[in-house]
């Protein structure tokens, strides 16, 4: 059992609290001081210390201890002070009077005070205090002692048994309530995920989930209330886990209310030091709100319960368990050739689901490049590295728990000169392996583990039997002699009993006062024949044991279950059921995850500790029955579920329940690509075809869609072209090769891939021809051929060779040739020819052979060399541009390049992909359709008639991203200061450029932002938004833009304010004649706004306007000069800030004015009646011309004007333009027509009268007389 001392003292985390006497002393004490040593509290008795004197302090304080029971615990301390302090020891609970257990020592040579606690037990687990006192003060520090109890405690078992007996509970009621569970359980489960509740409860033996969950909810609520004192939020809790070689860490996001709050780290209740330096054993790294605690150089003793506290409040607990796994067989060095597979393998001492493989300090995952396999017994682990290249060489590591092993992978270059300048064919061989029989080693290890488990079970059974024997002896021990005096002690027995030996008991009644004053009816048991007398009743007032002469039996047995009592009296150890819970049925081995192929059988099996227990199977929480096509069987304690033919709907979570226990596992039904064995065998046979003919490769398959199908020839992927055609369907794929040539001979491979796996099949193409070899120059073609397989029964005498130039339809005979070769010299350089041969015997000519391949008459070419100066011209997130120079020519070694192939592959892939199907001539190329920020390898291959040259790789990988650009801001005019009215939004948008995509961080006054601030980032800009600002949002906001190249920052000062409130009342004083001192109360906003200032305005009785006499005053007083007698003065005071100016605060009137009697004046009436200053005149206008009529009017108020023609109002007629500008009224007719002839008049009127003026318009023109 792990016992942790209770934390009550607030002086430092993990320390005990003061006693009542100390609290009384502290009330009388003067000054509290804090020591330089954390966790030490100093109290100074007087305000001023005499010169040369000092209060006590600790140079070295005692540290907390966690120690096993029975060991020696030692606390040490060194103190200082003048005069020399007196040192005493104490503890929070209990006394220290036992001098044999507690020994206090002092070493004069070292000045060290020591407290030794001998043979510690659980009773000594407490908080111990060390006091240092002199006449000027005292110093106190505390240290916790945690005791690990081991073994069976007879005394403790008796106490538990008496408690159970005293309460009178049944066996079922003797199970512990959740509140009695080890506190370690609550520490772990309050920080655990819900999915781990079941595992933790099983580990601590908690069965009643309902009670546990209720209690857990209460404890979580209490913890949240305690945490609310110090923290704002805590989330994203991640439990401790091994992250790398020898490193474990856990992390969470934390926002403190007070950044000065102290954070403590505990392991198994003992405070441990930590640092922000990563090379320390325990370190804390803070990234924004995220706290990452790391433990380095892991060892077995680092396992335990880690807790993080803020001040005295627990935040997070995580249980770190280090598995006892080791490597029996470590990985060995592997030497592999290029394009060969390499295998690393190891054997573990314990089953382990999956170890961590690392290559060149990077974690390796299952994929096209790597295959990770685990044996069924989970002891043998293998890593297969496919298609090794020079890039794969390096150190590879395997990690299981805290154990690691490493080995080199050496990739040897292919030294075959014939492969120079050609793409190497993928090898089917495999390098590596330990050379040992790992299966045999794993089987031996399994047997060893099974033997150890059996020994542990036997030892546990033996120990349990011993404990049962001890408990039985304690239960059956005779009671102490009974004095019969009920008043002699608390809970004593006053009843006297006499047993006659025949099962009857004659008892005399007596009375006894128990400690709680309660009464009970006693029953006695006779010892004769080990039987129970149910009629033997005693009448006593005892709450404890009754008077009897037989063996001691718990009250819970008598009258409850007679059979159990008989078992007890016969010595059967089932009596222990009264004091400990029945563990019930346990799982010896649980279910394991299963991966099965569709259509294949799958089996789930578990084993119970009881052979006679039934169970139930579930899939996805649905009960399974035999009607569902599942076979459920039981063989003793083994329970098995078999699915004969797995289908997709069989996938899911399977659960087996028995006696309230359950175990779960996942069944994953996979449908990877698969071939029929017969079809695969037929496909693997070589295909032989003659030159110029066509052939087909076909292979059916099954597997889940979508399926990726690829065909390869000699390691190069085939694409559709003139001679190659690929057909694909859901069930098969076919490759059609036409006009096969001898150079096409080689490996043919089909590769299928879907989400569940990859499958390959290999065949071989052999192209035969009558011509065994051709040697060509510009002036001669040397040709050879083979003899016919069938000579017709007669030997071949001669051969007849014919030649045809490509583009012509005639064959030219070159004569009879006795040998099977000929040098043809009558060829023209640069022309293309083909040949055929006849065999001749005594019977005549044979049929002609198949024509040879087209042969150019030219000198042979050597493959080109490597391209030169290969470089990346430009990059983006989806494309990159390459440029290079042609390879140099060397006579007889490498010739001129005629074209180029560009190949690309992602870092995690093993196959190169050609970007161009046909060679390009230019020395530049743009690779497109890349994934942003992906890593790519690029190479360029030169080619000519002699073949492909050696690939030229870039020196390093390329990231699909624009060229690196140091972050910089692109806005020319960026505001570094802004004022925002409180309640309005704050929006800061900054544009920048950077490559690669930068990390953008915003800070406010050099600390992280609050959650209410919204940050929106894009590729080239970042925006800070506060939707509703408050005054507390004022500050300096800094943006930090950082990437691999560098970083840039910019700060903006934001001032959130509002219109200031006006100053308080204004008073006027005259301290010096001719001056007035204006004094006012400050504005309420003065304390909240450091930019607030004041302005003073003045107005005297001789002037009607206000003038500013003072501005930007940061105090509350101003003296105005030049105050003239006989005038009245008024003052106004305004409060100003960055937002604006407040309403004024008025001062009282200052001074007196002279009184002057002014005569009364009669007011003038300026109103006039409407009248014409200039009346209308007669108008005669030609037809088609414009006519303009005008007059001048007067009147006050301004009169209303109306125009009439023949007594019809024209004001609303759009054919006339009517205006009235400054009393000049006009009417305009744009084009006069005979219809406009008539009388026009204008009327003006107001409240004072009306006036009128008229005129006539005469129209001249053709037939004008007819208009009259």
Automatic annotation (TrEMBL):
<keyword id="KW-0393">Immunoglobulin domain</keyword>
<feature type="domain" description="Ig-like">
    <location>
        <begin position="323"/>
        <end position="400"/>
    </location>
</feature>
<dbReference type="InterPro" id="IPR050964">
    <property type="entry name" value="Striated_Muscle_Regulatory"/>
</dbReference>
<feature type="domain" description="Ig-like">
    <location>
        <begin position="56"/>
        <end position="146"/>
    </location>
</feature>
<feature type="domain" description="Ig-like">
    <location>
        <begin position="583"/>
        <end position="668"/>
    </location>
</feature>
<dbReference type="GO" id="GO:0045214">
    <property type="term" value="P:sarcomere organization"/>
</dbReference>
<keyword id="KW-0677">Repeat</keyword>
<feature type="domain" description="Ig-like">
    <location>
        <begin position="1170"/>
        <end position="1258"/>
    </location>
</feature>
<dbReference type="InterPro" id="IPR007110">
    <property type="entry name" value="Ig-like_dom"/>
</dbReference>
<feature type="region of interest" description="Disordered">
    <location>
        <begin position="1"/>
        <end position="33"/>
    </location>
</feature>
<dbReference type="InterPro" id="IPR003599">
    <property type="entry name" value="Ig_sub"/>
</dbReference>
<dbReference type="InterPro" id="IPR036179">
    <property type="entry name" value="Ig-like_dom_sf"/>
</dbReference>
<dbReference type="InterPro" id="IPR013783">
    <property type="entry name" value="Ig-like_fold"/>
</dbReference>
<feature type="domain" description="Fibronectin type-III">
    <location>
        <begin position="863"/>
        <end position="964"/>
    </location>
</feature>
<feature type="compositionally biased region" description="Basic and acidic residues">
    <location>
        <begin position="445"/>
        <end position="472"/>
    </location>
</feature>
<dbReference type="InterPro" id="IPR013098">
    <property type="entry name" value="Ig_I-set"/>
</dbReference>
<keyword id="KW-0175">Coiled coil</keyword>
<dbReference type="InterPro" id="IPR040849">
    <property type="entry name" value="MyBP-C_THB"/>
</dbReference>
<feature type="domain" description="Fibronectin type-III">
    <location>
        <begin position="767"/>
        <end position="860"/>
    </location>
</feature>
<dbReference type="Pfam" id="PF18362">
    <property type="entry name" value="THB"/>
</dbReference>
<dbReference type="InterPro" id="IPR003598">
    <property type="entry name" value="Ig_sub2"/>
</dbReference>
<feature type="domain" description="Ig-like">
    <location>
        <begin position="967"/>
        <end position="1057"/>
    </location>
</feature>
<dbReference type="GO" id="GO:0031430">
    <property type="term" value="C:M band"/>
</dbReference>
<keyword id="KW-1015">Disulfide bond</keyword>
<dbReference type="InterPro" id="IPR036116">
    <property type="entry name" value="FN3_sf"/>
</dbReference>
<feature type="coiled-coil region">
    <location>
        <begin position="206"/>
        <end position="236"/>
    </location>
</feature>
<feature type="region of interest" description="Disordered">
    <location>
        <begin position="416"/>
        <end position="556"/>
    </location>
</feature>
<dbReference type="Pfam" id="PF07679">
    <property type="entry name" value="I-set"/>
</dbReference>
<feature type="domain" description="Fibronectin type-III">
    <location>
        <begin position="1062"/>
        <end position="1156"/>
    </location>
</feature>
<dbReference type="Pfam" id="PF00041">
    <property type="entry name" value="fn3"/>
</dbReference>
<feature type="compositionally biased region" description="Low complexity">
    <location>
        <begin position="503"/>
        <end position="512"/>
    </location>
</feature>
<protein>
    <recommendedName>
        <fullName>Immunoglobulin-like and fibronectin type III domain-containing protein 1</fullName>
    </recommendedName>
</protein>
<dbReference type="InterPro" id="IPR003961">
    <property type="entry name" value="FN3_dom"/>
</dbReference>
């Amino acid at each position: 059992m792990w016992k942790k001392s209770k934390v009550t003292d607030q002086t430092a985390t993990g320390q005990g609290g003061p006693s009542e006497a100390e609290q009384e002393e502290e009330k009388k004490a003067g000054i509290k001081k804090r020591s330089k040593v954390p966790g030490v509290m100093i109290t100074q008795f007087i305000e001023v210390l005499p010169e040369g004197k000092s209060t006590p302090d600790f140079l070295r304080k005692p540290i907390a201890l966690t120690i096993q029971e029975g060991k020696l615990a030692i606390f040490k301390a060194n103190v200082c002070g003048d005069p020399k302090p007196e040192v005493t020891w104490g503890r929070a609970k209990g006394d220290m009077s036992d001098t044999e257990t507690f020994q206090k020592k002092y070493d004069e040579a070292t000045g060290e005070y020591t407290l030794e606690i001998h043979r510690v037990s659980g009773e000594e687990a407490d908080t111990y205090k060390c006091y240092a006192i002199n006449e000027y003060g005292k110093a106190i520090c505390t240290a916790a002692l945690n005791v690990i109890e081991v073994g069976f405690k007879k005394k403790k078992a008796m106490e538990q048994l008496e408690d159970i007996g005293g309460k009178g509970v049944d066996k079922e009621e003797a199970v512990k309530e959740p509140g009695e569970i080890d506190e370690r359980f609550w520490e772990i489960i309050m920080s655990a995920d819900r999915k781990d509740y079941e595992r933790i409860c099983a580990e601590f033996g908690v069965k009643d989930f309902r009670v546990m969950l209720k209690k857990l909810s209460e404890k979580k609520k209490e913890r949240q209330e305690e945490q609310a004192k110090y923290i704002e939020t805590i989330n994203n809790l991640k439990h401790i886990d091994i992250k790398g070689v020898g490193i474990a860490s856990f992390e969470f996001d934390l926002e403190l209310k007070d950044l000065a709050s102290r954070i403590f780290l505990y392991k198994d209740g003992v405070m441990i030091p930590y640092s922000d330096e990563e090379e320390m054993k325990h370190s804390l790294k803070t990234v924004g709100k995220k706290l990452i605690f790391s433990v380095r150089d892991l060892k077995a003793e680092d396992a335990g319960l880690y807790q993080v506290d803020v001040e005295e409040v627990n935040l997070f607990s995580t249980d770190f368990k280090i598995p006892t796994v080791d490597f029996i067989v470590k990985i060995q060095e592997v030497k592999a050739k290029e394009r060969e597979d390499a295998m690393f393998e190891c054997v573990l001492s314990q089953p382990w689901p999956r170890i961590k493989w690392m290559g060149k300090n990077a974690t390796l995952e299952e994929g096209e490049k790597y295959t990770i396999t685990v044996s069924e017994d989970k002891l043998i682990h293998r890593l297969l590295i496919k298609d090794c290249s020079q890039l794969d060489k390096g150190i590879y590591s395997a990690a299981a728990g805290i154990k690691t092993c490493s080995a080199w992978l050496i990739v040897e270059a292919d030294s075959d000169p014939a492969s120079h300048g050609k793409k190497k064919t993928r090898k089917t061989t495999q390098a590596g392996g330990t050379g040992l029989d790992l299966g045999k080693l794993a089987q031996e290890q399994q047997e060893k583990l099974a033997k150890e488990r059996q020994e542990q079970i036997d030892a546990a059974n033996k120990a349990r039997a011993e404990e049962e024997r001890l408990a039985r002896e304690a239960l059956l021990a005779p009671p102490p002699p009974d004095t019969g005096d009920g008043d002699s002690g608390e809970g004593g027995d006053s009843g006297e009993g006499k047993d006659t030996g025949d099962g009857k008991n004659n008892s005399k009644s007596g009375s006894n006062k128990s400690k709680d004053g309660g009464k009970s009816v006693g029953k006695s048991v006779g010892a004769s024949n080990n039987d129970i007398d149910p009629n033997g009743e005693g009448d006593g007032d005892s709450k404890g044991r009754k008077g009897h002469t037989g063996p001691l039996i718990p009250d819970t047995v008598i009258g409850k279950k007679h059979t159990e009592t008989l078992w007890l009296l016969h010595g059967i150890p089932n009596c222990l059921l009264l004091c400990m819970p029945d563990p019930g049925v346990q799982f010896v081995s649980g279910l394991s995850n299963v991966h099965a192929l569709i259509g294949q059988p799958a089996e789930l099996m578990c084993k119970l500790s009881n052979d006679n227990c039934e169970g139930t199977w579930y899939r996805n929480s649905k009960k399974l029955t035999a009607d569902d096509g599942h076979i459920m069987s039981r063989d003793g304690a083994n329970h098995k579920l078999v699915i004969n033919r797995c289908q997709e709907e069989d996938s899911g979570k399977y659960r087996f329940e028995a006696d309230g226990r359950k175990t779960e596992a996942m069944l994953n039904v996979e449908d990877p690509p698969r071939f029929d064995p017969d079809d695969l065998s037929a496909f693997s046979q070589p295909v032989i075809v003659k030159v110029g003919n066509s052939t087909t490769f076909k292979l059916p398959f099954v597997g889940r869609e979508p399926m990726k199908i690829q065909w390869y020839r000699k390691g190069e992927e085939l694409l559709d072209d003139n001679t190659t055609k690929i057909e694909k369907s859901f069930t098969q794929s076919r490759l059609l090769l036409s006009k096969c040539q001898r150079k096409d001979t080689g490996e043919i491979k089909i590769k299928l891939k879907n989400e569940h796996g990859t499958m390959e099949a290999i065949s071989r193409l052999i192209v035969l021809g009558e011509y065994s070899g051709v040697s060509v120059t510009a002036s001669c073609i040397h040709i050879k051929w083979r003899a016919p397989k069938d000579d017709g029964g007669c030997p071949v005498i001669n051969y007849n060779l014919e030649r045809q130039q490509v583009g012509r339809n005639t064959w030219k005979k070159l004569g009879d040739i006795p040998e099977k070769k000929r040098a043809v010299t009558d060829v023209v350089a640069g022309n293309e020819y083909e040949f055929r041969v006849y065999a001749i015997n005594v019977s005549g000519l044979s049929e002609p052979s198949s024509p040879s391949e087209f042969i150019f008459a030219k000198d042979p070419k050597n493959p080109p060399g490597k391209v030169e100066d290969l470089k990346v011209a430009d990059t983006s997130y989806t494309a990159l541009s390459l440029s290079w120079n042609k390879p140099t020519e060397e006579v007889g070694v490498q010739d001129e390049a005629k074209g180029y192939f560009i190949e690309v592959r992602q870092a995690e892939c093993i196959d190169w992909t050609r970007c161009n199907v046909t060679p390009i001539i230019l020395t530049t190329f743009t690779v497109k359709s890349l994934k942003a920020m992906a890593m790519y390898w690029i190479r360029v291959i030169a080619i000519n008639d002699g073949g492909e040259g050696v690939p030229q790789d870039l020196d390093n990988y390329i990231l699909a991203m624009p060229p690196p650009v140091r972050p910089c801001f692109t806005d020319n005019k960026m505001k570094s200061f802004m004022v925002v009215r409180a309640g309005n939004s704050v929006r800061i948008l900054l544009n920048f450029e950077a490559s690669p995509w930068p990390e953008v961080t915003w800070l406010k006054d050099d600390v992280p932002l609050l959650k209410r601030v919204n940050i929106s980032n894009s590729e080239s800009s970042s925006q800070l938004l506060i939707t509703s600002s408050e005054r507390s949002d004022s500050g300096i906001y800094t943006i930090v833009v950082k990437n691999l190249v560098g970083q840039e920052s910019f700060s903006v000062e934001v001032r959130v304010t509002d219109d200031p409130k006006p100053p308080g009342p204004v008073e006027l004083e005259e301290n010096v004649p001719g001056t007035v001192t204006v004094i006012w109360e400050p504005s309420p906003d003065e304390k909240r706004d450091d930019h607030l200032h004041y302005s003073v305005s003045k107005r005297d009785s001789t002037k009607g306007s206000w003038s500013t006499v003072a501005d930007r005053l940061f105090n509350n007083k101003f003296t105005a000069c030049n105050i003239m007698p006989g005038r009245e003065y008024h003052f106004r005071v305004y409060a100003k800030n960055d937002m604006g100016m407040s309403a004024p605060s008025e001062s009282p009137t200052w001074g007196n004015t002279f009184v002057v009697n002014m005569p009364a004046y009669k007011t003038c009436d300026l109103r006039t009646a409407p009248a014409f200053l200039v009346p209308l005149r007669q108008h005669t206008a030609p037809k088609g011309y414009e006519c303009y009529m005008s007059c001048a009017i007067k009147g006050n108020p301004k009169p209303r004007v109306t125009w009439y023609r023949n007594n019809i109002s024209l004001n609303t007629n759009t054919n006339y333009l009517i205006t009235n500008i400054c009393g000049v009224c006009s009417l305009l007719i744009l084009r006069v027509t005979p219809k406009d002839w008539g009388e026009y008049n204008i009327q003006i009127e107001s409240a004072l009268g009306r006036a009128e003026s008229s005129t006539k318009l005469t129209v001249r023109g053709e037939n004008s007389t007819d208009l009259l």
